[in-house]
Amino acid sequence: MGESLFLTFIGPPGCGKGTQSELLQKHFGIGRLSIGDMLREAILQQTSLGNKVDGIISEGKFISNEIVRDLIDENLDRPANAQGVVFDGYPRTIEQARALDDILGKRGEELTVALELSVSYDELVDRVTGRLIHRPSGRIYHKTFSPPKVPMKDDITGEPLTRGKDDTIENLNERLKKYKKTGLPILQYYKNKGKLVTINASLGRDYTWSMIKKTLTRLNFHKKLN
């Protein structure tokens, strides 16, 4: 295993992947790679890859695994990601998981751990239907678990928060169906490689974060944690 930390979260919508990714980025000093963010940035910067992506999107086509792979490969070379990366929303298929192994392998690295955040269905319903979003920044709050200081106002800007139009039980059920189809094979893939660690994320953000730190300590990354 290399010196840097590379990990991914696997879990259903509402399990807390984004929250825990932010905590890791802040406390561990690693980068965070989101496919959506990388696509938008490449387009805005008008890189050769970004122009290619822009053309594909304009034609209403899907972004191929090859382009996603190139994006990750390109972004891993940035100084901000020198200590490691948490992959946000990637991989989502076995093909992508194998591609990630190849990308890291050519750097003499490997995925440190795949963390499954396991959450009960009732808890997922509570989390998803109570979510509040600050659209300009993407900051997420929750009316019960992490409420804003002022009701329905962003803590930083004071701008209004909104509820996601897709944050309904019906939409959650559809997303869970998709997750079971794509996520479960990835869990098995990493389990077979001895990389999977499952955490009961139903017990709240702080408990989940403490278990993540314990997992990293066991993997000898504890000295870098704050």
UniProtKB/TrEMBL annotation:
Ranges for domain Adenylate kinase active site lid come to 131-166
| Superkingdom in the source lineage | Eukaryota
> What Gene Ontology terms describe what this protein does at the molecular function level?
AMP kinase activity; ATP binding
Q: Which UniProt keywords apply?
A: Kinase, Nucleotide-binding, Transferase
The record's family statement is:
Belongs to the adenylate kinase family.
Q: What is this protein called?
A: Adenylate kinase
